[in-house]
Amino acid sequence: MKVGFVGIGAMGHAMAQRLLDGGHDLVIWNRTRSRADDLVARGAILADTPADVARQVRIVFSMMFDDASTEQAVFGAEGIALSLARGAIHVCCATLSLAQARRLRDGHAGREQIYVGATVLGRPPAAAAGELFVITAGEDEALKRVHPLLECFGARIFDAGRDPVQATLVKLSLNFMIYSTIEQMAEVFALNEKAGIDPHTIFEIMTNTFYTAPVHRNYGKLMVAHEYDHPGAPPVTLGLKDMKMFLDAGGEYDVPLPYASVVRDRLLSAISAGDANRDFVVLMERARQDSGLK
Mean of the pLDDT values across residues 287-294? Predict the structure, then answer.
């Protein structure tokens, strides 16, 4: 199948690679063209604009950084919506606000185009291995059409509903659970370290008893090793963006989210400490600092 992909960042690049591995023909666009060089070497076609991508395919994926970059790539002067055919599908995998997800849904509908939300859980290495978890929402027929493509990079695909906005809300909710789990682990590691217990020991006990989920194993390992600067790591600023959008969602539905405010403030404190661009597991250091550890 000939497929489009707009946004070749760390995640988008790995996902595009998997589509090529699956035997699909790929038309791609990225603001920094050189990041797509290896994909072009494998046969991908590099387009000049997102509109040029959409003009050549019936299904186009996007994986932009935030609301603003997504809005520009989709509804800008050279955006996807400009040339996407009637009945063609835009699949957005980015983490967005509910307002932006609605804007995509309604903007495409007004052009007789189809919008599918397909948010993803996992880091770039998981994407490269085809081990992402994908949360979809949209029209039944559209989901059937994109499902084989999602299987290229998704180990499991979960259906959140018929409204594409639902995929966005689920993703924001699960991201909150990731950040709050990191905060819990940071507090536990700091307390036990202050009492003279090696955080590695706590990690070993924790991940071999009740706390065996990937979020405990993978993030906890980075935390006790103080690995905050490895390439492709999602930064603190990304976590703060997600927490603000999650809190906004709570406001929209009149649902108090008190612990989300705690996590947001911890992320803000990390930024104030100069850690804005480090892996968000650096929250470990804020808990250690509060406890008086050096």
Answer: 94
